[in-house]
Design brief:
homodimer; alpha/beta; Peroxisomal Thiolase, Chain A, domain 1; nine-stranded mixed sheet; 16 strands; 19% strand; globular
Chain lengths: 501, 501
């Protein structure tokens, strides 16, 4: 037993948190005085979530962990590893993970490995890989791992501001998972680049070289995809002898803005086209690509900024995009770029936009990108037997929590409800709030100006930063549970006390 | 094969870098006008290394990785994972790991997992655990992992300044290692504490609550040690039915200053004493403890600041300290606190202070502590067969590098030479250099004022920070190798070209 790895390690449960305030991208176009459609059609964004000055990276992660544990009835004693991926650094030394350990106080369980992991939007993926490896390693002691990603993405006023967002996602990791990380199938691309980085430690805003950023993302995508396909061709039996997009049922991407994701699907089709792999696509999908013959001698080199080629491939791959990727962009479009949680928000969006029967047995490809740069492509397999509630082993129902695809997806269904429950604020108010964050986010001896009026029940919020920069938080109470102890549709949850510290 | 883990995963090779400038702690006592012996006897420190303004966390890590690869003749293509543990944050988003990827450019290998991991001085241990788990996981592809820890530890002028230091350590990780991480034997203690943290992002200096810091360290030690012994009692056959200090041949600690380490040995003896485990010590060791009968009813509660008890246990455990721990404090005493590399500097110091025959087959206990807080106790086993060069498989000698205890320790022997080659600077000069760092460490459009006159050959140094905060580095050339292509005793190395970017 000791030298054998547990099997089917992956995601057992997920929880998503996004801010309760948002701004409309249409109104932001007017407010910013840019050409109509620049943010909405040009970038593919509809709405953008943002935080007031009473939320920070700690409060975001406290909220999502507390909700995941409550909703899935997991005991804090049963967690053996917890790590956080973030680039929202408010302390150069203390980890967000150490702040989250407050949630474990009551359980008395402090034997919980893992700290913070960081490289721009890639930190969450790094944490996920580490957690999976821990479960597969000799250090595993049978307990669950928790992976948390969270970020507040804000930009200086100007062109990039509309590509902000915020949120946090927690994932419970263990064996026999409904979403299995496919073993030995992973391709990374890591290089030195100053495309997007945060060297001004006094500011929440990054320094961005927009053109280099797109170039880095696409180059990483090309490299990861080709390397992933090479590895997958050896590992996975396919109808053709090689692996290509036809072997991936859903393809998810880190999404700084939705239009880049659509271009990424086109780019993958270009990769297949250049390598003659599109010949293995289904008849229908091949038919869509018939107008590409003018590019039969296309190469990947120097094609990143070739507009006619890009346009042609985006058009030709539209059906593939609609089927394999678009359902994953719900949160990316309505909340914006969450940074580390972005890719996992795409996973959550896909899961609540697709029926369980459709999902079961499928392969989900994921491309994670963090500027600087760090990128990986990997895949999830939706396990055959975890799709339907009736296959739950009845002997275990009253024992430990059982994690099926059904339970995983059920836990995410309130996303659509909560998106509608958010408060829309005008661009003027949004701008004022960002100005307030700008002036106050590094202050000691400070109490947030915002009340907790707008935030969702169950949300942790910052109450004070003392003269030594020590931060305290409180939690907005959840409504009382209904008679059955179940969550109600309006976001009320079965958790009754305020956990304040 | 696929679901079976590789065996004896651990440290194959190590490389240590520390600054070439240091200040004498005796002179610092005079300069600071404190009572004689406060830093030297009171804290147990002799000298302190420090960096000029032309070294930063990137340059420290570039140097140690380049040297490890050269000295051990490892090809950059053979690295599949690289991660960095640090709390010296100079960018909130871009990882140090991404900077290190420049070293891989020539090899064309960019499929290298891992980013940065951070929680005060614990980041390196987190990176080590992640690397070992990766090798043991299904994601492993047969290549080596590289773990890098580095930090520049500086404090505001005053009481704490003398507890600074700087350095970096790289470790090559893989199976069949001379230093095996004992599988399934690990106890962690993670909690929320504001004992030492860095909330002022504009400053290199931490905020420190000295008393809480000692209390947190000792509480973490108590918890990790007891939990480790509980786990070890189940896993390891010992003469007595339980596990205690007599089952650990060498005991290493994170060392903010050497006196705390000596007190930690005493604290472990107190733990054993309270639980009656000292009865399993050797006759000689038991005899040393005979004066402790006045504390026969001692408990761990409220004893952290009990001075008479502490003094008695420090005295009674002196022989144990001399034998099991003191040989590990060479670098901690002469370079100071390196933060993340501190614990691994203790390992390197032990290895070059003890004969290979003595080391072989022994268990080395390690206690890693990072404020905030994150702590773990784990152990290394020096493998029976890797101790002597004659057991190297001759068939492999001309093939891949072979890593034995002999080769590992040989690579570290220049530490003593380099400690002597350093330049001693007067406290006035040291203070001026820290003031210069204070004013310049966050600047854009800046070139360091220091020349590379003092730094060791083979060291990377910062040459410029441009107007967009982008940093460039150059490497001080190594002397030409001697006729045999070997490193010479004076620090000359078999690497001839200047690698500048």
């Amino acid at each position: 037993m000791e030298d054998k790895r547990p099997e089917n390690v992956g995601i057992l449960a997920m929880e998503v948190y996004f801010p309760s305030s948002y701004v409309d991208q249409n109104k932001l176009e007017d407010f910013d005085g840019v050409s109509k459609g620049k943010y909405t059609k040009g970038l593919g964004q509809e709405e953008m979530g943002f935080c007031h000055d009473n939320e920070d990276i700690n409060s975001l992660c406290l909220t999502v962990v507390a909700r995941l544990m409550e909703k899935n009835h997991v005991d804090y004693k049963d967690i053996g590893r917890l790590e956080v991926g973030t680039e929202t650094i408010i302390d150069k030394s203390k980890s967000v993970k150490s702040v989250l350990m407050q949630l474990f106080d009551e359980s008395g369980n402090f034997d919980v490995e893992g700290v913070d992991t960081s490289n721009a939007c890639y930190g969450g993926t790094s944490a996920l890989f580490n957690a999976v490896a821990w479960v597969e390693s000799s250090a595993w002691d049978g307990r669950y791992a928790l992976v948390v990603c969270g970020d507040i993405a804000v930009y200086a006023s100007g062109n990039a501001r509309c590509t902000g967002g915020a949120g946090s996602i927690a994932m419970l990791i263990g064996p026999s998972a409904p979403l299995v990380i496919e073993p030995g199938l992973r391709a990374s691309y890591m290089r030195h680049a100053y495309d997007f980085y945060k060297p001004d430690l006094t500011s929440e805003y990054p320094v961005v070289d927009g053109k280099l950023s797109v170039q880095s993302y696409i180059t990483a995508l090309d490299n990861c995809y080709q390397n992933y396909c090479r590895k997958a061709s050896k590992k996975i039996k396919t109808k053709s002898s090689t692996f290509n997009l036809s072997n991936i049922d859903y393809m998810l991407f880190h999404s700084p803005y939705c239009k880049l994701v659509q271009k990424s699907v086109a780019r993958i089709v270009l990769n297949d086209y250049v390598h003659q792999e599109h010949q293995h696509y289904s008849k229908d999908d091949q038919t869509q690509l018939k107008d590409l013959c003018q590019f039969k001698d296309a190469s990947l080199d120097n094609s990143i900024f070739n507009k006619p080629l890009e346009t042609a491939f985006v058009k030709a791959s539209e059906c593939l995009f609609e089927r394999k990727t678009k359902p994953s962009l719900l949160l990316a479009r309505q909340v914006g770029n969450m940074y580390t949680p972005s890719l996992y928000s795409c996973l959550a969006s896909l899961l609540i936009s697709t029926s369980l029967n459709e999902l079961t047995g499928k392969r989900i490809g994921l491309f994670s990108y963090g500027s600087g740069l760090a990128a990986s492509m990997f895949s999830l397999r939706v396990t055959e037997h975890a799709g339907l509630p009736e296959v739950v082993n009845p002997a275990k129902v009253n024992d430990l929590p059982t994690f099926t695809l059904h339970s995983l997806v059920s836990g995410l269904l309130e996303i659509r409800v909560k998106l509608k429950q958010r408060t829309q604020l005008e661009p003027e108010r949004f701008t004022a709030i960002l100005e307030c964050r700008e002036k106050t986010h590094t202050l000691a001896n400070y109490s947030p100006q915002s009340t907790n009026e707008h935030i969702f029940p169950g949300t942790y919020h910052l109450t004070h930063v003392d003269e030594k920069f020590r931060r305290t938080y409180e939690r907005k109470p959840l409504p009382h549970p209904d008679m059955n102890g179940n969550s109600s549709q309006n976001g009320a949850e079965n958790f009754t006390h305020t956990n304040g510290f």
